[in-house]
């Protein structure tokens, strides 16, 4: 779980770092890194690219601390460096893709798939402390969710950055203008379009999804785990809302229980049904990490094959259903969700494989 440092500690380190204190600068960079990665991820939608951009942003923060104006806050510096590094990464990727395809218009259509930032929830006490300041450095539970990041990527990069700065991070108009080099009129147009788009998209999503700790969310995740292990699409469809959606990056979206069950049935047919699962939290959403088992010379080993981020909500009159499933298969993401299960001796693994869904 990513932990965001309280504001007072960051401010103390920022003041000392501006005075040339190197240990304070090192602590500041270490404490700011989770927020920098989060901001870059929201703009890029890809965890690997976000980590690369965060490195550039942290270099910019080091240079910015030394040259910071007396009135510049650490929040403004983080926003400026994170957004600048992310937009530069977007533009470089677009130019490279345009060169590969021989035409600039092809570059915009080949954005990397959106991946979940695997941070867990920010502690509520830290949110209260941080959001009590005029410039917020993190946003609320909902704005960190996987669905929000997908919705955010409906916008063009500069529009996305402006919406993020103004409505999520709480930057003022002057700070946003200095980062994006936009006039007041341009910012007003971009922001109005962004708010309209975000509102239209989010209005189609459930307003009150269950938190991962909710008893019904846990129960539904366990029932889903049993259905997947038993390769039983009928049990699986019983957990889905009639308007449920399955989102598989690079493949597409599938709507309705029957279409979703068909996609899972195809996974079962090609041998991807999990042998075991474990409940995880994926960026504030409920999730399942699915494992396959493999017998190797050292014993039996479970290894993660895919993760499912779930949105579970209450539907009228009083039912609880899964309304959205995001499937993640990237192995780098798997490693961030959970380590490979250690090797077990054959005798112990045989006994343990019969009594639990969790490896």
- Unreliable residue runs: 1-5, 103-113, 119-138, 341-356
List the strand order in the largest sheet.
2-1-6-5-4-3
Please work out how many helical segments DSSP would assign.
15
The residue-averaged pLDDT reads 78
* Oligomeric state of this protein: single chain
Feature tags:
globular, 359 residues, single chain, alpha+beta, disordered N terminus, six-stranded mixed β-sheet, 15 helices
Topology at a glance:
Blueprint: H1 7-18, H2 22-44, H3 47-67, H4 74-101, H5 104-107, H6 124-131, H7 146-152, H8 157-168, H9 173-180, H10 184-202, H11 215-229, H12 233-237, E1 240-248, E2 252-255, H13 257-269, E3 276-282, E4 285-296, E5 299-315, E6 319-328, H14 331-337, H15 346-352
Parallel strand pairs: 1-6
Antiparallel strand pairs: 1-2, 3-4, 4-5, 5-6
General description of the model:
This protein is of the alpha+beta class and 359 residues long. 53% of the residues lie in helices and 16% in strands. β4 and β5 (299-315) form a beta hairpin. α1 crosses α2, α2 crosses α4 (74-101) and α8 (157-168) packs across α10.
In short:
With 359 residues, this protein is an alpha+beta fold. It has helices at residues 7-18, 22-44, 47-67, 74-101, 104-107, 124-131, 146-152, 157-168, 173-180, 184-202, 215-229, 233-237, 257-269, 331-337, 346-352; strands spanning 240-248, 252-255, 276-282, 285-296, 299-315, 319-328. The two termini are 21 Å apart.
């Amino acid at each position: 779980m990513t932990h965001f440092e309280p504001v007072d500690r960051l401010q103390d380190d920022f003041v000392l770092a501006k005075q040339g204190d190197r240990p304070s600068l090192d602590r500041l960079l270490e404490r700011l890194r989770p927020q920098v990665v989060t901001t870059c991820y929201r703009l890029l939608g890809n965890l690997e690219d976000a980590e690369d951009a965060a490195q550039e942003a942290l270099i910019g923060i080091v240079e910015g601390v030394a040259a910071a104006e007396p009135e510049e806050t650490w929040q403004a510096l983080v926003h400026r460096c994170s957004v600048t590094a992310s937009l530069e990464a977007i533009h470089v990727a677009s130019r490279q893709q345009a060169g590969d395809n021989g035409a600039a218009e092809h570059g915009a259509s080949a954005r990397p798939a959106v991946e979940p930032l695997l941070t867990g929830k920010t502690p509520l006490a830290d949110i209260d402390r941080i959001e009590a300041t005029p410039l917020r450095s993190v946003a609320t539970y909902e704005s960190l969710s996987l669905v929000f990041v997908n919705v955010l990527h409906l916008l063009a990069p500069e529009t996305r950055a402006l919406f993020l700065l103004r409505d999520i991070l709480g930057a003022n108009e002057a700070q946003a203008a200095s980062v994006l080099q936009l006039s007041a009129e341009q910012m007003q147009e971009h922001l109005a379009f962004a708010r309209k788009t975000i509102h239209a998209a989010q209005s189609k999503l459930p307003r009150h999804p269950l938190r991962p700790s909710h008893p019904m969310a846990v129960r539904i995740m366990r029932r889903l785990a049993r259905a997947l292990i038993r390769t039983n699409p009928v049990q699986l469809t019983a957990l889905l809302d009639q308007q449920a959606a399955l989102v598989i990056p690079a493949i597409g979206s599938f709507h309705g229980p029957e279409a979703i069950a068909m996609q899972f049935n195809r996974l079962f047919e090609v041998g991807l049904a999990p042998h075991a699962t474990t409940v995880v939290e994926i960026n504030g959403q409920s999730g399942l990490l699915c494992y396959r088992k493999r017998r190797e010379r050292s014993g039996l080993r479970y290894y993660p094959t895919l993760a499912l981020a779930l949105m579970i909500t209450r539907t009228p009159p009083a039912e609880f259903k899964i309304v959205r499933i995001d499937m993640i298969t990237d192995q780098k993401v798997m490693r961030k969700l959970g380590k490979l299960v250690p090797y077990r001796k054959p005798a112990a693994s045989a006994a343990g494989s019969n009594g639990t869904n969790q490896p």
